[in-house]
Every structure is written in structure tokens, then in C-alpha cells.
Amino acid sequence: MGVEGCTKCIKYLLFVFNFIFWLAGGIILGVALWLRHDSQTTNILYLQLGDKQAPNTFYVGIYILIAVGAVMMFVGFLGCYGAIQESQCLLGTFFTCLVILFACEVAAGIWGFVNKDQIAKDVKQFYDQAFQQALMAESDMNNGKAVVKTFHETLDCCGPDNAVGVITPLWRDDLCPKKEFSLKNVIESSNCHKKIDELFSGKLYLIGIAAIVVAVIMIFEMILSMVLCCGIRNSSIY
Length: 238
Hints:
Helix content is 79%, strand content 2%. It contains eight helices and two strands, in the order ααββαααααα. A two-stranded antiparallel sheet has the order 1-2. The N and C termini lie close together (9 Å).
């Protein structure tokens, strides 16, 4: 005997929320794949300075997002099927998966908040090392110049956030993007540190919004799944 009344409404409401959850998983998976293959980040994070690889902390977070998106799509499908079939077993499994996902998301959020500035900081340190090598007389003996030019061309900037970086466009046109000379262009193109901050903070901001939306949906789904499970149990008694 199927559920009736308010419990039936909850059943279909849970189905709708699960469908949204499934779509959100697909969106997160798509966004994560886009971030993974974005030309700006790949050009920078695939660089290698001598034996040193560019920091890959950002990609670790992206791989986690890809896994989360795939799991969300599976859990969303499980919740939709469990709600339609009115299966206590499937709904219980669905609730357990949601609790695990929610705990992982909270842990990832705390980790991301603590390390949000560290990602850009590591990349800026990598850039500064390459920049120093590129300015040395023996820079042709290493790939420092190639690494720096990749940063400059990808981010449309030139030089770090210091006095050397400001005057670099004036005397090292082999390192900096070719631009029409003007004081405004020199100032605006002389801060790669700022461009690196903008690159990663914008992407982390996007990830943060998605995480908050998904967390709210999960809370509603956990409540609805438990209410529906109790309704199914009570309806089977009569």
C-alpha cells in the first residue's frame, strides 16, 4: 500500500529535490572539468622550472570536485528511485550517503578556507623564482625565461609586485607582452601577483557558491528522506 496525503506530497517533493541534486552534480562535474582544462590554469600549472613542478594544490581540489560531482549524480539517481519506489532500504542508503557527502563537503570547505590564500601564494613564489632566473645573465642556461613569458602572455602582465616589476617592461621587452608604450600600460601590466590572485580567487569564489547551494539542498533532502521513510513505515502498519 502506497503512502497517502502529506506523505505523498513529500514523496514527490523529495523526487524533485533529488532531480535538482542530480542536475547540480552534473553542473559541478562540468564546471570541475572546465576548470581542469581551462587554458589559463593549464598553461601555468603545467610549467616546470628546472626540476621543480608548478604547485598542483589547485588541481587536487579540482579532482576532488570531479569525484564529488560524479558521486552526487549517483546519489541523486538513488534518491529519485528510492522515493518513487517508496523503498525504506534505498532511502536509508540515500540518507547515509548524504550524511557522508555533507561531512566531506564541510571538511573540504574548512580545508579550502584555511588554504585559500596558500594556492595563490605558492604560484606567486614559483613565478618569482622563475622571474629571478630570467633576469640573470645565465638565464639562457635554464628555462626561467620560457616560464616567465608563459605567465606574462597567459595573464597579460609583466613583473612581480615590487619596484623591479614596475620597471621591467621598460627594459626587458623580450620578457613582457608587446604593448603600445604609455605610463598607464606600464603600471597596469606590471603586477603579475595581482593577476595570479584574481585568477585563483575568482575560481575559488565560483566553487564556494556551488558548495553552499549544494549544502542547502542536501539539508532539505536529509529532512525529507527521513520524514518520507517514517511515513512509509507508518503506512505499512495499517
